[in-house]
């Protein structure tokens, strides 16, 4: 459920009303609510005392206001900053690198084309996931992805650590992470007016 208002009390009332409607629907269709997966978050840069005071209650379960939530694989915080999301993505990437390292390391006998395919199939998608909403993240945060990509390309092509970034991208024919994000985001926004979802249409 999503709603917005200048007044926190209005937000509370709207969410309570919608929660009652949801509960009626769940009861009718015998759907059990998973309390552990039900969260509430208030996006704002206001002072804390201006935030909603009351918890949202669904079927006598109080849903607390959280500072961070995860939705469709994206970590949101109350200030709409994605530092936590990027940090967790980098951890996930490191775990995958450990699994495929014998195949993509400098000593691997696997051909470069296959190594690059492994990177494109299993590692880069994590960096690019949800990039239409990450497109406004600071360059400092996006650069963490870029540094990771640089190291992996150097390893795949067995290049010296001091190889210039421009050269490794020229040889691998890969776009910079920021360029790849812009490309995907532009395509997404161009397709938004053609969908039936009114929220996405308004967003575009």
Give an account of the 3D structure.
This protein is mostly helical and 204 residues long. The protein is built from eight helices and six strands; from the N terminus they run αββββββααααααα. It has helices at 8-28, 83-104, 112-128, 131-134, 139-156, 165-172, 177-191, 198-203, and strands at residues 40-41, 56-58, 61-63, 65-66, 68-71, 74-77. A two-stranded parallel ribbon has the order 1-4. A two-stranded antiparallel sheet has the order 2-3. Strands 5-6 form a two-stranded antiparallel sheet. The longest helix is centred in the middle third of the chain and has 22 residues, at 83-104. The two termini are 20 Å apart.
Concise structural overview:
With 204 residues, this protein is mostly helical. Helix content is 54%, strand content 9%. It is elongated, with a radius of gyration of 22 Å.
Distance separating the two termini: 20 Å
Rg computed from alpha carbons, rounded to a whole number of angstroms: 22 Å
What share of residues is helical? 40-55%
**How does the major sheet shape up?**
2 strands, parallel
β-strand number: 6
The helix/strand order is HEEEEEEHHHHHHH
Which stretches are poorly predicted, pLDDT < 50 over at least 5 residues? none
Q: Mean pLDDT score, rounded?
A: 88
β-sheet strand percentage: 5-15%
Content-based structural category: mainly alpha
The coarse silhouette is elongated
The tally of helices reads 8
The largest beta-sheet arranges its strands as: 1-4
